[in-house]
Structure prediction request, 476 residues.
Amino acid sequence: MSWGTELWDQTDNIAAYVQKGIEFCEKFSHFLREKCSLENEYASKLKRLVKSYQPKRKDEDCEFTCTRGFQEMISEITDMAGQHEWIAENLTNSTMKSLHLLIQQIKNDKRKYLQENSKQNSNMQSQWQLLDKFKKQYEKAFRESEKARELFNKADADINLSRAEVEKARSFMVQKQQICDNAKSEYGAELQKTNDYQREHFDKLIPEIIQRLQDLEESRINSMVSLYKECVDTERKVMPIVSKCIDGMERASSLVSSSTDIKVVIDKYKSGFIPPGDIAFEELSSDNSSSEKISPAVSVSSLTRGDAGKSKPAVASVKAKKKTNKILGLFGGSKNEEVKEDFSHLPPNQQKKKLIQQINSIKALLSKEVAERDGLLKLQDAYQKNPSLGDSQSLGKQLEEGAQKLDQLHSELRKFQKYLADIDGTVSHQETLSTNPPAIKKLSNSEDHFQPVLSSSKEEQDNHCLQSLVFGIQDL
Prediction:
């Protein structure tokens, strides 16, 4: 179906419809602009959200699989945010650009076609006005000719008029008849011309213009379909990447292991101390029921150091308190505690862990220094073989400084390796003590109490007493 044949007389309505199509294109352009703005805003907020949940420090809980899985998951969200930015960029640079060109083209073509339609209508009006002019001339000539005929007939019938007057009336009538005939001929010719032009106007010129408007509208609709599909393709192109991001989030969740995190907690907080052994049974002597009981203020360790009557409870209590404070650091020590070089301020297991880290760090620095020294040696050898490349003596100072750094690092390495060996010996000693608890023997009736008989050294006795003291503090 064609607008040119079906809607030949609806030019105004067609023009209004085409204008509505242009307004719809502009509406779609505004939609795309707002969508791109929202996509960019959403991507920006997603990235800001991910950034706000990133660890403040690089080593903050990163050893736990649950935390690492979460970080992997939100990093995939960052990639997904990038896809939203890509959608906005592609819609802006491609789809919206094409849409703006389409709107401008439709406006220009519509203006041109309507101007041409106005021109054709103006020409048709001019032709109608010209025809009307010739028609009026013919009507006037016809009226004058009829009037001249009436005058001639009246003069011819009047017997009082002379023959000359009658001939004069006849000549006037003939003249007017000739003018009327000429006006009639001109009107007929102009009428034929007007009809031909009118037929061409309504059968060809106007339908062609309306058909062009129809073609313009069809082109607009087809272009909109293409733009719709382009928007869909833009969304579809990011789907594989978004799907990979989702797969990455799923993989991140599968990396989380409760057993691994439990082991990490053990490795992180294990002190290395041995739980206290059984408390020795103290039986009072039946022969001396009035004997003085052991004072709570006297440390058990002081009773194992010799003379019962010459014990020094104050000194023993101070020493036990120092060791107790070290153990109680497990449950939250002072934040202002001095950090020692050998990490002895930490529990044994954590001290060992820190020493191993320090040793590995020193070994890494050693490897770096050795590599730099080897590089300098090779460069020095090349200078010696080919002096034009450079002076080999200029590298002597750098080699000397490197050797000093290596000596310092080796010294540091030996020092921390000795610290590690010492802590390994201490932990092994405590484990041996835990498997061999002290024995108890009954004192003679002349003594005031039972004295624990330890099968190990004085240091082992102190450790056992210390453990007993910690166990008692925990009960309190």
In short: The longest strand covers residues 439-441. Strands lie at 439-441, 451-453. The longest helix spans residues 65-157. The CA atoms of residues 271 and 347 lie 5 Å apart.
